[in-house]
Design goal:
The complex is a heterodimer of chains A (317) and B (353).
Chain A: H1 2-22, H2 39-47, E1 54-58, H3 62-67, H4 72-79, E2 103-107, H5 112-126, E3 133-138, H6 145-156, E4 161-167, E5 170-171, E6 174-175, H7 185-191, E7 196-200, H8 204-219, E8 225-230, H9 251-259, H10 262-267, H11 272-295
Parallel strand pairs in A: 1-2, 1-3, 3-4, 4-8, 7-8
Antiparallel strand pairs in A: 5-6
Helix pairs in contact in A: 1-11, 2-8, 4-11, 5-6
Chain B: H1 4-18, E1 23-26, E2 46-48, H2 53-65, E3 70-73, H3 84-96, E4 106-111, H4 126-129, E5 136-138, H5 143-155, E6 160-165, H6 184-191, E7 220-223, E8 228-232, H7 236-251, E9 255-259, E10 262-264, H8 268-278, E11 281-288, H9 293-305, E12 314-318, H10 328-334, H11 338-350
Parallel strand pairs in B: 1-2, 1-3, 3-4, 4-6, 5-6, 8-9, 8-11, 11-12
Antiparallel strand pairs in B: 5-10, 7-9
Helix pairs in contact in B: 1-5, 2-3, 7-11
The chains are: A alpha/beta (317), B alpha/beta (353).
Chain lengths: 317, 353
């Protein structure tokens, strides 16, 4: 287990560090919202999911996409705006999809995918499918009306949906305490009839074990569940750098999270040869993905009118 | 003959039985009411959603993502403003997902004035909707078209918005729907839910309906003529027809009246041919006039047919005021009425070339 866990966490971390490194060269055409520091949330929750389960995510979605096995080449190419990207260079970093992995989509319009996840779960329940839906969103999204609307419906219909609030404490530059009258997100979920649990996002084993229990409850037809995973974003809201100079949070606050980083603790549980082998594999995979993106073509202008409608563009001629 | 709203109901029934409709849902869409305008009475898959427009559109998308074929209702298009973000996202998804996520979903919503709905039950929505690429938008003006456009909307693999002119919902058609009983009382007795106690145990006895598809993107020329081209749809269409008929008698000049039926994609070929023939154009709708969808048609006609035009082309639309006031003096002076349409039409016909 630790071997695979390390590989997954490391791959996300290193891929994003490479994104950050390449970013100033302007080879990456997309704004990037990095998950560095938050990888354990996606990896831990997805650990408890089955291959045919469905996930919906947020614009900070690299970790979720990769944790579900999304193709790294297609992700990097997408960030480069290349034709070989997972949405052919149309969506960029904020709109990664991998239908074959159940990654239905992410959105820059905060909260919108929560309602989609609930509709998806409704359709699956009606068809008596075994699969469940996991809906990932941030603490900011819980302030959107659609959060309340979606929890209400999911509870009403006892839908097989797991709501995962990746609480990194900030909506861009505004702390949760400056935005919400009550910080108890589980109590809010519970008010809608959705039982919730809060987990420390630095404890990967706690995330996995709680996710497994919770997913079992959802899968066995007990209705929706809510998980708050408390985590922390190390870098700026959007872009490759840190942002402590802005003064809205302190570097000390971040340091305590860095000191508790999951990655070295998982690494320490592997023997050195195994660890080095994984690191070499991950580096090779990342180098390959960036080389693939570099070598891929930009879309031709004719791509613009492709896929506006299912049939060839019915454009009133 | 079936009313427009009965035609919608019969189409949805046909959709459930033959076109794979999995869910017809919205606020009070299921029993006991079956929709504020009764469009969904007796339907097998109809259910009541929470009072939640974003939830309705968001869920419709999710159901479609999961392979279902939902028909969602927004009770009045005025509540569509609550959910413009999700409508935008729904239109984007197929393109933004590089063709990997078809979204076969239908949203139907009553649109426009005519029931003294005052501020928030009278808006038009087609101009807003026309700014949502990825959506197809249709608006029938009679029962048969409502039936045929609804079937096409259900069968379409893209998101389709069906705008229902609420002033015409109870108007009977002039043509029989395929499968509709000859006797309209029999139809009523079969498919209209009874009022009162009897409703609790009521079941519809659906007539055996047959398929009839009005292609999306195809206009209908409802009056042929060469004195001028009149393009309209929805509530103002029958008024434009009446005005044209009256002017044909009074002036002896026959206007060509086109029921656009589809806002997007619209039937440019039909418009273009007619304008080439008449050289005179009047567009009539009731949406507010600033950045009105009709202005787009005007712009295109001017760019393509500038030298074919004999007189200034015109748009008769709703006034640019915040809403439609309750009193009929407000309503009748805000959106085009028969007399306004007739006046504008006669000016276009009679203006010296």
């Amino acid at each position: 287990m630790m071997t695979r866990l390390y590989r997954e966490l490391l791959k996300i971390r290193r891929a994003e560090e490479e994104v950050a490194r390449a970013y100033p060269t302007d080879r990456i055409k997309s704004p990037v919202h990095l998950s560095i520091g938050q990888e354990a949330v996606s990896v831990g929750i997805c650990w408890a999911l089955n291959p045919d389960d469905i996930v919906y995510g947020t614009y900070r979605g690299h970790a979720l996409y990769l944790a579900r096995g999304g193709d790294l080449r297609e992700m990097v190419a997408e960030l480069y705006g290349k034709l070989t990207g997972c949405t052919r260079g149309k969506g960029g970093s904020m709109h990664l999809i991998a239908p074959e992995r159940g990654v239905m989509g992410m959105s820059a319009v905060v909260g919108t995918t929560i309602a989609n996840a609930v509709g998806h779960a409704y359709a699956m329940k009606v068809r008596r499918q075994e699969a469940i839906v996991a809906s990932f969103f941030g603490d900011g999204a819980t302030e959107e009306g659609v959060f309340a609307e979606s929890l209400n419906f999911a509870a009403l219909k006892k839908l097989p949906v797991l709501f995962v609030c990746e609480n990194n404490g900030y909506a861009i530059h505004t702390a949760q305490a400056k935005r919400q009258g009550s910080l108890d997100l589980c109590a809010k979920a519970s008010a809608f009839g959705v039982p919730g649990r809060s987990i420390d996002g630095s404890d990967i084993e706690a995330i996995i074990s709680t996710a497994r229990e919770t997913v079992n409850e959802v899968r066995s037809g007990q209705g929706p569940r809510f998980l708050e995973v408390r985590t922390y974003r190390w870098r700026e809201h959007v872009g490759p750098n840190t942002d402590f100079a802005l003064g809205y949070r302190s570097e000390d606050e971040c340091s305590s999270w860095i000191a508790n980083d999951v990655l070295p603790r998982v690494a320490a549980r592997l023997d050195q040869d195994e660890r080095r082998a994984i690191e070499a594999e991950v580096e090779a995979e990342i180098a390959d993905a960036f080389a693939f993106a570099e070598a891929s073509p930009f879309p031709p202008a004719s791509e613009l009118v492709r896929d506006v409608y299912k049939e060839e563009a019915p454009c009133c001629n | 003959m079936a009313t427009l709203v009965q035609a919608v109901r019969l189409a949805l029934h046909y959709g459930e039985e033959h076109l794979g409709v999995t869910d017809v849902f919205g606020e009070d869409v299921g029993p006991p009411l079956g929709g504020v305008f009764t469009a969904t009475q007796g339907l097998r898959t109809a259910w009541n959603s929470p009072l939640d427009e974003r939830g309705i559109i968001g869920m419709a998308m999710g159901i479609a993502y999961a392979g279902g074929r939902p028909v969602a209702e927004i009770q009045f298009c005025d509540y569509g403003f609550n959910v413009i973000d999700l409508l935008k996202v729904a239109g984007n998804q197929y393109w933004a997902g590089a063709g990997q996520y078809p979204l076969p979903m239908v949203v139907m919503t009553p649109s426009g004035s005519g029931i003294r709905g005052s501020l928030y039950h009278s808006h038009s929505f087609e101009s807003w909707a026309s700014r949502l690429p990825g959506w197809k938008i249709v608006m029938p003006s009679n029962a048969l078209d409502a039936y045929g456009l609804m079937l096409s909307a259900i069968e379409d693999p893209n998101p389709v918005l069906v705008l229902l002119p609420k002033a015409l919902l109870r108007v009977r058609g002039e043509q029989r729907l395929p499968g509709e009983p000859d006797d309209e009382n029999e139809l009523k007795e079969r498919i209209d839910a009874p009022v009162g106690e009897a409703r609790t145990t009521w079941q519809p006895r659906w007539p055996k309906m047959e398929p009839y598809f009005v292609p999306i993107g195809k206009a209908s020329t409802v009056r042929e003529g060469d004195a001028c081209t009149v393009i309209s749809y929805g509530r103002t269409l029958p008024l434009a027809v009446q005005a044209a008929d009256e002017l044909a008698t009074e002036l002896g000049n026959r206007a060509e009246v086109i029921d656009l039926r589809s806002i997007f994609p619209y039937d440019w070929k039909c418009i273009s041919q007619s304008v080439s023939k008449t050289g005179r154009l009047l567009i009539v709708n009731e949406d507010t006039e600033v950045t009105n969808f009709g202005e787009h048609l005007l712009r295109r006609v001017i760019e393509h047919h500038f030298y074919d035009l004999l007189v200034r082309p015109r748009l008769l639309a709703g006034k640019h005021v915040p809403g439609i006031g309750l009193n009929q003096v407000y309503e009748q002076n805000t959106v085009p009425q028969l007399r306004h349409i007739k006046q504008a039409m006669s000016e276009v016909i009679l203006e010296q070339a």
